[in-house]
Design brief:
Helices cover 44% and strands 21% of the residues. It has 121 residues and is of the alpha/beta class. The protein has a five-stranded parallel beta sheet, with helices on both faces. Helix 4 links the parallel strand 4 and strand 5.
């Protein structure tokens, strides 16, 4: 079973994402910010990370940069979730190591399509 780390400061977004991903047979781990997410990755590197971009403590960009520097941190497929529709912000995320992005709000169809693009479903 593949493991996905959901990183978002919104409990609602985490709950919606968890429901979708569990329906796709993913084992789920959650974190409220990038700092917590790094701790989870050090404990067990996930197969995938669904990553919010704007969070307190450590934002998605800082987390992604730190993740990619960890041993094995190049392996997880990272799909960042954002309300940002700024092409520059999206490009910055992709250059930092994100594999794909999803605009909020998202639904199961969008999630499945993006996960298929990165080879996770």
């Amino acid at each position: 079973m593949k493991n996905c780390l959901i990183v978002d400061d919104s409990a609602v977004i985490r709950k919606v994402a968890r429901r979708i991903l569990e329906g796709l047979s993913f084992e789920i781990t959650e974190a409220e910010d990038g700092e917590q997410a790094l701790l989870r990755c050090r404990e067990q590197m996930p197969d995938a990370v669904l990553l919010d971009w704007n969070m307190p403590v450590m934002d998605g960009f800082a987390f992604l940069t730190a993740l990619r520097d960890l041993p094995g941190g190049d392996a997880p497929k990272v799909v960042f979730c954002t309300t940002e529709n700024d092409v520059g912000a999206i490009a910055r995320a992709m250059r930092a190591g994100a594999d794909e992005y999803i605009m909020k709000p998202f639904d199961k169809e969008i999630m499945v399509a993006k996960l298929q693009e990165v080879g996770l479903v």
